[in-house]
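Design job #97: recover the sequence.
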């Protein structure tokens, strides 16, 4: 048996301290870059993109140097050679850092820095292009984003399909084959379900169809639209944050064009954003609930993970499982609608005076093919994701040009959802993801929705009454369960390992489909 000498022990302990120092420095660079990004997406004046791009270029170059320098590589390779003497968390830190550094080092530094600069500019141009409904303005930047993602994937993993590489980066183990199978499972049951609901809705006017249609109890979304002053919606957001259990000392709320969540340096500082529409009572509420789910996950990392690469969520699929769980499984439940309706009656008495909890529940769950992904109901939502997945896949394979994206977007919306896209603002320009380089992210939304339904079933087996807790507006037991099973682990486990630990069974998208069909039976009587 090998016995460590005193000198070897001292070297290992020093290496451990150097590992902690390295990660704190990396976290500091991330802190600065995230602050710059957050500022640009929220309160920065419109003409300041160039200023941010310069700062991001400098910071990204320094970060690149730190990650790829000989000192860092030597440290990590030394620790990797002694991994049997490291803790489970230290082993995972070294593995993730080496994986990232070896990938980054394959990208020429000037191209890496130029890409960070491109993303700042692309984000700014996207905002303006969306406002002006001008895809042509954004097109050259979007083409550069796609081209760079293809090129970088070729540098890092030339043996892999470029899109497979990026899918795997957002959800380890995910590839086109797995995505195709997953989306086909959803499509095979969702398309007939949507058709059946459409038939029920069409027959309701003539008094035919199921009892729900005959008695006039189908969803009426009109109750959700009117005049809802932004200042009162801001009060609603504060109430939602309190009910959801967000710690306002560490989780802040701001306003932006396209809601998002980001951790600023560590889980001690998480920012969520929303967008208010004066004619829509629930759009912002559900974005706050959704982003709040992301924030709870990030902020729930174990304290000893702060300022390390393990801090935060393991994948975008698991991340979206948290946000979609709170937004839909809780937020659109009959129980939560009973809980939140009195707040609507207090803030908007004229509009909601005669609205019942049942009316509200059905309205926020109305199944209706629509233009905007973030406003979509649970049943049609995955078809919005499928469209984006198919477009990304074809652009990454060279089968579709960026120039032709708007026309193909519009064609697929007509084919899959039966809606006509009136303009690019409500079409191909509606999402911020591509401007930020997030190619391969979108499937995470559908995966996360399916994960969430299985988490709900697991909670039931563990005697967590989600409905009861939602109805009384006390999420503490729900948050405690998630805060023990999922949040504290950060990036310690792979997505598959985490799912296996939490679920105790294989992932099965049919659990999600069963959940959707049951809700539709309740609302539409089918």
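Job complete. Output follows.
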């Amino acid at each position: 048996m090998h016995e460590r000498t005193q000198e070897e022990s001292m070297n290992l302990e020093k290496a451990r301290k150097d590992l902690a120092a390295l990660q704190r420095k990396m976290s500091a660079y991330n802190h600065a870059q995230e602050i710059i990004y957050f500022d640009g997406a929220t309160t920065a004046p419109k003409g300041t993109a160039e200023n941010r791009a310069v700062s991001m270029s400098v910071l990204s170059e320094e970060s690149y140097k730190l990650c790829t320098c000989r000192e860092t590589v030597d440290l990590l390779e030394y620790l990797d050679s002694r991994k049997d003497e490291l803790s489970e968390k230290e082993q995972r830190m070294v593995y993730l850092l080496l994986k990232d550094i070896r990938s980054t080092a394959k990208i020429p530094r000037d191209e890496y820095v130029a890409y960070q600069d491109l993303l700042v500019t692309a984000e700014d141009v996207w905002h303006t292009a969306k406002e002006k409904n001008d895809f042509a303005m954004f097109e050259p930047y979007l083409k550069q984003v796609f081209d760079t993602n293809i090129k970088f994937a070729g540098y890092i993993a030339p043996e892999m399909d470029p899109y497979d590489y990026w899918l795997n980066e957002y959800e380890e183990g995910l590839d086109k084959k797995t995505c195709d199978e997953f989306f086909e499972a959803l499509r095979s049951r969702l398309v007939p379900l949507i058709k059946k609901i459409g038939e029920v809705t069409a027959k309701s006017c003539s008094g035919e169809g199921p009892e729900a249609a005959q008695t006039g109890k189908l969803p009426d979304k009109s109750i959700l639209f009117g005049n809802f002053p932004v200042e009162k919606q801001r009060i609603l957001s504060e109430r939602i944050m309190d009910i959801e259990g967000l710690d306002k000392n560490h989780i802040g709320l701001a306003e932006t064009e396209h809601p998002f969540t980001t951790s600023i340096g560590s889980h001690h500082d998480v920012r969520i954003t929303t967008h208010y529409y004066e004619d829509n009572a629930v759009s912002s509420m559900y974005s706050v609930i959704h982003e709040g789910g992301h924030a709870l996950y990030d902020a729930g990392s174990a304290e000893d993970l702060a300022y390390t690469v393990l801090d935060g969520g393991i994948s975008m699929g698991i991340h979206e499982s948290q946000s979609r769980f709170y937004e839909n499984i809780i937020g659109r439940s009959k129980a939560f609608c009973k809980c939140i309706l009195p707040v609507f009656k207090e803030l908007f008495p004229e509009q909601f005076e005669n609205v019942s909890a049942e009316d509200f529940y059905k309205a926020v769950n109305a199944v209706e093919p629509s233009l905007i992904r973030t406003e979509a109901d649970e049943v049609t939502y995955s078809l919005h994701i499928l469209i984006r997945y198919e477009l990304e896949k074809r652009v990454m394979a060279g089968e579709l040009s960026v120039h032709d994206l708007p026309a193909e977007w519009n064609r697929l919306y007509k084919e899959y959802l039966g809606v006509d896209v009136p303009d690019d603002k409500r079409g191909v320009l509606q999402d911020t993801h591509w401007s930020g380089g997030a190619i391969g992210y979108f499937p995470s939304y559908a995966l996360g929705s399916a994960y969430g339904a299985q988490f709900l079933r697991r909670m039931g087996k563990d005697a967590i009454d989600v409905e009861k807790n939602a109805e009384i507006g006390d999420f503490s037991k729900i948050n405690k369960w998630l805060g023990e099973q999922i949040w504290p682990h950060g990036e310690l486990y792979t997505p598959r390992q985490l799912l296996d630990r939490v679920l105790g069974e294989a992932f099965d998208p049919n659990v999600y489909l069963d959940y959707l069909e049951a809700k539709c039976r309740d609302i539409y009587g089918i």
